[in-house]
Amino acid sequence: MGEGKSLMNRREFLHSMSGSILVTAMSVAQARAQSHNASASEDIVFADFESGNYDDWTLTGDCWTNTPASAFRFPKVTGYQGKRFLCTFHPTLGNAATGKAVSKEFTMDKPFINFLIGGGNYPHKACLNLVLGAEVVRTATGSNSTELRQAWWDVTPFLGKKAHLEVVDDTTSQDRGYIMVDDIRFSQFKRGKQALENEPEPAVTPERPPLREAVLRFCRQRVGVQVGDGECGTLVIQALASAGARPRQADFPESGDYVWGVLICTLEAANGMAHLKVSKAGKKEDGSKGADIRPGDVIQFRDVEFRHPSGIGFFTRTYPHHSAIIREVSEDGQVLDIFEQNYGGKRYVVESTLDLEELAQGWLRIYRPQ
Ligand SMILES: [Ca+2]
């Protein structure tokens, strides 16, 4: 009997128990064929210009100074990462300077290229280009602003291919005839508000009513952006407020355990054993087992540890105290895509995935905003 079969039998057994599910999280996790790679979700920083020189970029033209730009020369510029950024506005030649910076070649092995961009809006004249062979396959400009703003390209069609980037300034326009670029990252996730402009909004359906859809829209618009003070709870507070939902209620069961609406279920684990308790509001309409978890529901965490297999050991993901919003639920209700802020030191909104079968310690409470 294969491991997949034993997992299925375990699930059938679990689902046959009325009102509760017992899961041996570690052994179930071990049985999984799929292995997670902790580093796969990490960004690769391709260029941030923080070294103080142009590193592997090949420069031509008269727009370049000895070192990448900084606040010393450009005190009015905002939105860049760290202390330095690429800029084709020359301190003495100004807008009239032109030039090009060509990156080293790289292989695209992540679906998104995220970057900060600012300066003039001159398509194909002052721009950042992604070049395959001799063909420009993606291009971006500033939005006529001295602020660098987050943007992204979906490069899924080019995965596995070699490419390079080029920063082009081919305009002498006196009206912001320059381009600024910084913080170029290869990533599993897209960052920035451009996501909203490029993506169709999901339809409002009975499963996605307007209130929860408004919560989700708030989060989608802010991926890669810090909401308020960057705390996890602030993301939820502001998302609920934007949707006109009832604000956070009195803590339960202990002080600091935030309550975000009607309780759907509690999933509690100790030493790898997890127990699901479904509330009346969380029962499925068709009477089937498990909790009726929906996109837009909010998760509250206490002393939580997820463990998933990584090589010969486990990769653990811990949440001593945390809040997150559910973005998507897998068909079997076991895997949740979430929006969260302030996990792993990232004080901006990111998209992550939780596998409830990997809950090994602590509890999760899932609430439905009202
Ligand atoms: Ca920088």
Identify the notable features of this structure and list them briefly:
6-stranded antiparallel sheet, disordered N terminus, elongated, 5 helices, about 375 residues, 8-stranded antiparallel sheet, 20 strands, about 40% strand, Jelly Rolls, binds calcium ion
Could you estimate the helical fraction of the residues in percent?
Answer: 10-25%
How many domains would you count in the coordinates? 2
Biggest pleated sheet: 8 strands, antiparallel
> How many strand segments?
20
Return the average pLDDT rounded to an integer: 84
Order of helices and strands: HEHEEEEEEEEEEEEHHHEEEEEEE
Bound molecules: calcium ion
Which structural category fits the helices and strands? mainly beta
Please state the CA-atom Rg, rounded to the nearest Å: 24 Å
Q: Spans with pLDDT under 50 lasting ≥5 residues?
A: 1-38, 193-200
Q: Helix count, per DSSP?
A: 5
Distance between the termini: 46 Å
- Indicate the proportion of strand residues: 35-45%
Shape: elongated
Major sheet strand order: 1-15-14-20-16-17-18-19
Structural description of this entry:
The protein is mainly beta. It has 2 domains: 3-40 and 200-368, no CATH class; 44-187, Jelly Rolls (Sandwich). The protein has helices at residues 3-16, 25-31, 194-198, 210-220, 232-242; strands spanning 20-24, 44-47, 58-61, 69-70, 84-87, 99-102, 106-107, 112-119, 126-132, 135-140, 145-154, 162-169, 179-187, 262-270, 273-278, 298-310, 313-329, 335-343, 346-355, 359-368. The strands form 3 sheets. The chain has an 8-stranded antiparallel sheet. Strands 2, 4, 5, 8, 11 and 13 form a 6-stranded antiparallel sheet that branches. Strand 16 and strand 17 (313-329) form a beta hairpin. The radius of gyration is 24 Å and the shape is elongated. The chain starts with a helix and ends with a strand. Residues 48-50, 80-82, 84-85, 182-183 line the site of calcium ion (CA).
